[in-house]
Amino acid sequence: RNSAKLIAPLGCLVSRQKHTLPDLPYDYGALEPHINATIMQLHHSKHHATYVNNLNVTEEKYKEALAKGDVTAQVSLQPALKFNGGGHINHTIFWTNLSPNGGGEPKGELMEAIKRDFGSFANFKEKLTAVSVGVQGSGWGWLGYNKEQGRLQIEACANQDPLQGTTGLIPLLGIDVWEHAYYLQYKNVRPDYLKAIWNVINWENVSSRYAACKK
């Protein structure tokens, strides 16, 4: 009976389709002057594409290791799965978190939750910015939802660690603070990039994510 339970998920892994690079919902230059077209093109078509390609390669190797029952190989592939899988997950969220029509402040239930959990939108913005600035090396600043506690929470993740897979928080808003996300425009001044990005945050997307995870 236990063997039967394993057949379905393993079959899904064997027959699944490969991951693909999602299209951006706007042109590369649509977020200017806050994030320029060159950065967006390189970030999407090169960096994110690399995570997708490497994830597909790693999953093929993992499928082979599963078929052979090679647990050592499965374990050795975990870091690559986490890094490239996280890179794909994080960036897929990130593109939708941004919009040429973004900026300002959220409305409705999300705004009420921000006021409840952080005191004010200004306090929330200051805290998420500070956490993002404070990431050592490469990583992400996140607004997530703690489903067990029913509240919003700010967290930083190193490298491409996915928020939900490493902290349990459901991702609502992610800010990429890898240098490739801003260096060509803002050089090494991360705070200037973080000040600018608030002008293109897609609060409708963040709000819809919040509503979905509360169901």
UniProtKB/TrEMBL annotation:
<dbReference type="InterPro" id="IPR036324">
    <property type="entry name" value="Mn/Fe_SOD_N_sf"/>
</dbReference>
<keyword id="KW-0496">Mitochondrion</keyword>
<dbReference type="InterPro" id="IPR019833">
    <property type="entry name" value="Mn/Fe_SOD_BS"/>
</dbReference>
<feature type="domain" description="Manganese/iron superoxide dismutase C-terminal">
    <location>
        <begin position="106"/>
        <end position="209"/>
    </location>
</feature>
<comment type="similarity">
    <text>Belongs to the iron/manganese superoxide dismutase family.</text>
</comment>
<feature type="binding site">
    <location>
        <position position="91"/>
    </location>
    <ligand>
        <name>Mn(2+)</name>
    </ligand>
</feature>
<keyword id="KW-0560">Oxidoreductase</keyword>
<comment type="function">
    <text>Destroys radicals which are normally produced within the cells and which are toxic to biological systems.</text>
</comment>
<dbReference type="GO" id="GO:0005759">
    <property type="term" value="C:mitochondrial matrix"/>
</dbReference>
<keyword id="KW-0479">Metal-binding</keyword>
<dbReference type="Pfam" id="PF00081">
    <property type="entry name" value="Sod_Fe_N"/>
</dbReference>
<feature type="binding site">
    <location>
        <position position="176"/>
    </location>
    <ligand>
        <name>Mn(2+)</name>
    </ligand>
</feature>
<dbReference type="InterPro" id="IPR050265">
    <property type="entry name" value="Fe/Mn_Superoxide_Dismutase"/>
</dbReference>
<keyword id="KW-0464">Manganese</keyword>
<feature type="binding site">
    <location>
        <position position="43"/>
    </location>
    <ligand>
        <name>Mn(2+)</name>
    </ligand>
</feature>
<keyword id="KW-0944">Nitration</keyword>
<dbReference type="InterPro" id="IPR001189">
    <property type="entry name" value="Mn/Fe_SOD"/>
</dbReference>
<dbReference type="InterPro" id="IPR019832">
    <property type="entry name" value="Mn/Fe_SOD_C"/>
</dbReference>
<feature type="binding site">
    <location>
        <position position="180"/>
    </location>
    <ligand>
        <name>Mn(2+)</name>
    </ligand>
</feature>
<comment type="function">
    <text>Destroys superoxide anion radicals which are normally produced within the cells and which are toxic to biological systems.</text>
</comment>
<dbReference type="InterPro" id="IPR019831">
    <property type="entry name" value="Mn/Fe_SOD_N"/>
</dbReference>
<dbReference type="Pfam" id="PF02777">
    <property type="entry name" value="Sod_Fe_C"/>
</dbReference>
<dbReference type="GO" id="GO:0004784">
    <property type="term" value="F:superoxide dismutase activity"/>
</dbReference>
<protein>
    <recommendedName>
        <fullName>Superoxide dismutase</fullName>
        <ecNumber>1.15.1.1</ecNumber>
    </recommendedName>
</protein>
<comment type="subunit">
    <text>Homotetramer.</text>
</comment>
<dbReference type="InterPro" id="IPR036314">
    <property type="entry name" value="SOD_C_sf"/>
</dbReference>
<dbReference type="GO" id="GO:0030145">
    <property type="term" value="F:manganese ion binding"/>
</dbReference>
<feature type="domain" description="Manganese/iron superoxide dismutase N-terminal">
    <location>
        <begin position="18"/>
        <end position="99"/>
    </location>
</feature>
